[in-house]
Design goal:
By secondary structure, the protein is an alpha/beta fold. The protein has helices at residues 38-51, 62-67, 80-95, 108-119, 125-144, 158-174, 180-183, 191-197, 209-222, 231-238, 252-255; strands spanning 3-13, 25-34, 100-107, 147-154, 198-204, 258-260. The protein has a six-stranded mixed sheet.
């Protein structure tokens, strides 16, 4: 019997080619865990919220926490010691979670330079690329674990949700959409194997604890090209939460976190 895995994904930055947007990247990534471990993650996050008197229905939104705004504006009123305690406690939630963190990070300027002439101003091509790379690489890793994979994404809106599910069905039925000659060096998984590994896709709200965890883990990876010493990224490496820390070095190019168009 194959073991069931679940990948909960989120995105960070804009997938649009508009260079007036100051964000230098678009990233899609998430947390992979065994189905049997979902309850552990849910309990860790619920306990954390209880300790800090955060309503259970309030999602742990990384941007609000970092900026100390909106539902986490109250963090700005804490002493420096209390703020540090909060962040240390939140870090422990992440490192104690039985997860593998996977991601694809795209340089928006690099993507524009490489593909603008070929594709034009197609709004969602960047998201399609990131999604396909993320899911295919995660599926490879799950296959090594003799498992199958269910994908959960954060609902974004009717149009975006339909696109994500369309990308998924196309990947499952036809394989990766990239040029076969250029992608051969990454040992792409066949559509037949993907079809047997990928069990389905479903949208979830931000209230789902695993989606919140995906949000918290993705940002440090997304900024790691410009800020490789960011604290959260270094801790995830130290605690071996990243997929890169769990595979042989010779598999990094085909299974590891993908930094795309950064040359």
């Amino acid at each position: 019997m194959k073991e069931e895995f679940a990948l909960f994904i989120d995105d960070s930055g804009s997938p649009k080619l508009n260079l007036n947007d100051p964000c230098p990247y678009f990233a899609m990534g998430g947390v992979l865990l065994k189905r049997a471990d979902e309850a552990i993650v849910q309990r860790l996050i619920e306990d954390f919220k209880e300790r800090w008197q955060i309503p259970l229905h309030t999602p742990l939104h990384g941007n609000e926490i970092r900026s100390k705004k909106k539902r986490f504006a109250w963090l700005g009123n804490l002493s420096e010691e209390a703020k540090e305690n909060f962040m240390n406690d939140l870090t422990q939630v992440i490192v104690n979670s039985p997860i593998t963190v996977c991601a694809c990070v795209i340089s928006r300027q690099g993507y524009r330079n490489r593909y603008l002439e070929k594709y034009g101003e197609k709004t969602w091509e960047m998201m399609k690329s990131a999604f396909n790379i993320l899911i295919e690489r995660t599926a490879k890793y799950v296959d090594i674990q003799n498992g199958n994979l269910m994908v959960y994404y954060e609902k974004m809106g009717e149009k975006e949700d339909k696109l994500i599910e369309k990308y998924y069905e196309e990947l499952r039925s036809s394989g990766l959409p990239f040029d076969p000659e250029n992608s051969a060096k990454y040992s792409p998984m066949s559509s037949t194997t993907l079809g047997s590994l990928l069990r389905g896709i479903e949208g979830k709200s931000k209230n789902r604890p695993e989606i919140q965890l995906a949000d918290l883990c993705l940002y440090p990876i997304a900024i790691s090209k410009s800020q490789p010493d960011n604290r959260a990224f270094k801790i995830m490496i130290e605690k071996k939460l990243l997929i890169d820390c769990k595979i042989p070095i010779e598999q990094l190019a085909s299974l590891g976190i993908k930094y795309y168009c950064f040359e």
